[in-house]
Amino acid sequence: MSIEVITGDITRLDVDAIVNAANTTLLGGGGVDGAIHRAAGPRLLQACRAIPEISPGVRCPTGEARVTPGFELPARYVIHTVGPVWRGGGNGEPALLASCYQQSMTLAAEYDLSSIAFPAISCGVYGYPPEQASQVALRTLLDQPEGGPERVLICCFSDAMAAIWRGALSDAD
Ligand code: AR6
């Protein structure tokens, strides 16, 4: 498996699946979630609404993942996952963030996907410090068993964010 850090707009990537940093409603939001819904078109929201609620308003609990088609995106699928809100790090944030990457990779393996792109989950409005998020994410990705996607992209939205992830990748490798 190869892991590559790039800078760009995840909605433009021609991969089997892109991962969305969503919220528990799965009904859209700002940041990368808003960008993905805009680029995928209105059928994405319809598909998200059709995902069953497991408690009122909650279609995907924090740390879990759900899959939909990509509709108008170049990517065939969107894997929606919900990262933790950073509350200082002592409230289970690392395990929840690791679970986002883990469940996304497991779904990708189940769908037999060979390429997947992740944004920097929780590193925007959810406030997770990117130095720590990147370590958790890369450790989880490097621990994946054989049989999942061969090509893993980390798609950062700025060169500064990409530099942090590249540093973490060279430390983890
Ligand atoms: N491509 C790649 N990365 C992007 C893009 C893009 N088009 N747009 C933003 N980013 P955030 P979170 C980066 O806030 O912290 C939403 O409202 C962004 O610069 O999107 O997990 C949801 O509905 C940052 O580095 O996600 C939730 O309510 C990273 O993506 C909440 O935000 C993640 O930032 C989730 O917050």
H-E string: EEHHEEHEHEH
CATH architecture label name? 3-Layer(aba) Sandwich
Q: Look at the structure and name the CATH superfamily.
A: Leucine Aminopeptidase, subunit E, domain 1
CATH first level: Alpha Beta
CATH topology annotation: Leucine Aminopeptidase, subunit E, domain 1
Tally of individual helices: 5
Number of strands: 6
N-end to C-end Cα span: 12 Å
- The average pLDDT value, as a whole number, equals 98
Q: Order of strands across the widest beta sheet?
A: 1-6-5-2-4-3
Strand content: 15-25%
Output the structural class: alpha/beta
Ligands present:
ligand AR6
**Alpha-carbon Rg, integer:** 15 Å
Number of domains: 1
Uncertain spans: none
Largest sheet: 6 strands, mixed
Shape: globular
Helix content: 25-40%
GO molecular function: O-acetyl-ADP-ribose deacetylase activity
Pfam families: Macro
InterPro entries: Macro_dom, Macro_dom-like
Organism: Dyella japonica A8
Question: Would you mind describing this structure in some detail?
Answer:
By secondary structure, this protein is α/β, with parallel strands linked by helices. The protein has a single domain, classed as Leucine Aminopeptidase, subunit E, domain 1 (3-Layer(aba) Sandwich). The chain has helices spanning 31-40, 43-49, 93-110, 130-142, 159-172; strands at 2-7, 17-21, 65-69, 77-81, 115-118, 151-156. Strands 1-6-5-2-4-3 form a 6-stranded mixed sheet, with helices on both faces. Helix 3 packs across helix 4 (130-142) and helix 4 packs across helix 5 (159-172). The longest helix is centred in the middle third of the chain and has 18 residues, at 93-110. The mean pLDDT is 98.
